[in-house]
Design brief:
rod-shaped; mainly alpha; 2 domains; 201 residues; 0% strand; single chain
C-alpha cells in the first residue's frame, strides 16, 4: 500500500515592514512629495487656465475655441513644471534616505570581512541618524560572543599545550604520569571541546 505524500508546507507570509520606523517615515515622505506635486499641478493649472480664459473672453479679437484648446497650454505647462519639481524632490529624498542605509551597509560589509579574517576586536559604530542601528547592536553582540568563545578555546588550548609539554618532560625523564596530571590534561581537553562544540561547520 502506497503512502500518501505529506502535504507541502504552506509558503510563509512575507514580512514587508522589516525596519518599520524607517519604512513608515520613507513612505510618509514619498506620499508628501506626491501630494505636494498634485497640489502644485492643480495650483499652476488654475492660475494658467484663469489667465488663458481671461485673455480669451476679454480679447477684442476673441474667436470661439473649445475648452480643450484653451486649457491645453495650461495643462502642458503645469504638468511639466510639477513633474520636474516632483522628480527633483523624489530624487533628493531617495538619495538622502538611501545614503542613511547605504552607509551602514558599507560599514557592515567591511566589518564582516574583517571579522571573517579573524579580527574579533571590532566594535561597529554608525553615525547618529543612520538607519539599521538595531543591526549594529546585533553585530556587536555577535562579535563579543565569538570573541568570548575563541578566548575560551585559546585558553584551553594553551593549558593543554602546557600540560602536554610537562607530560613530555616527565616521560623523557623516565618518570610516570600521575593521575592528577592526566586529569588536568583531560579537563583542558574538555574545555577546548566545549568551546569549539558551539560552532557548526
Amino acid at each position: 500500500m502506497e503512502e500518501t505524500p505529506a502535504p507541502a508546507p504552506r509558503p510563509r507570509r512575507r514580512i514587508l515592514l522589516i525596519e518599520r520606523a524607517f519604512q513608515v517615515r520613507f513612505i510618509a515622505k514619498m506620499t508628501a512629495v506626491v501630494v505636494l506635486g498634485t497640489v502644485l499641478t492643480g495650483g499652476i493649472l488654475y492660475v494658467l487656465a484663469n489667465q488663458e480664459f481671461g485673455r480669451a473672453f476679454y480679447s477684442a479679437h476673441y474667436q470661439a475655441r473649445s475648452s480643450w484648446e484653451l486649457l491645453l497650454p495650461a495643462v502642458l505647462v503645469s504638468s511639466f513644471v510639477s513633474m520636474t519639481l516632483v522628480a527633483a524632490a523624489a530624487t533628493v529624498l531617495t538619495l538622502y534616505s538611501s545614503h542613511k542605509i547605504g552607509g551602514p551597509l558599507y560599514r557592515f560589509r567591511a566589518n564582516l570581512r574583517a571579522i571573517g579574517d579573524g579580527d574579533l576586536t571590532l566594535v561597529t559604530r554608525l553615525r547618529e541618524g543612520d538607519e539599521l542601528q538595531g543591526f549594529t547592536e546585533a553585530m556587536n553582540d555577535m562579535t563579543r560572543r565569538l570573541r568570548d568563545r575563541v578566548r575560551e578555546a585559546r585558553d584551553a588550548a594553551e593549558d593543554l599545550r602546557v600540560a602536554l609539554a610537562e607530560a613530555k618532560g616527565v616521560v623523557e625523564a623516565g618518570g610516570h604520569l600521575t593521575a592528577e596530571r592526566l586529569r588536568g590534561m583531560e579537563e583542558a581537553s574538555e574545555r577546548l571541546h566545549r568551546a569549539l562544540g558551539g560552532f557548526r561547520v
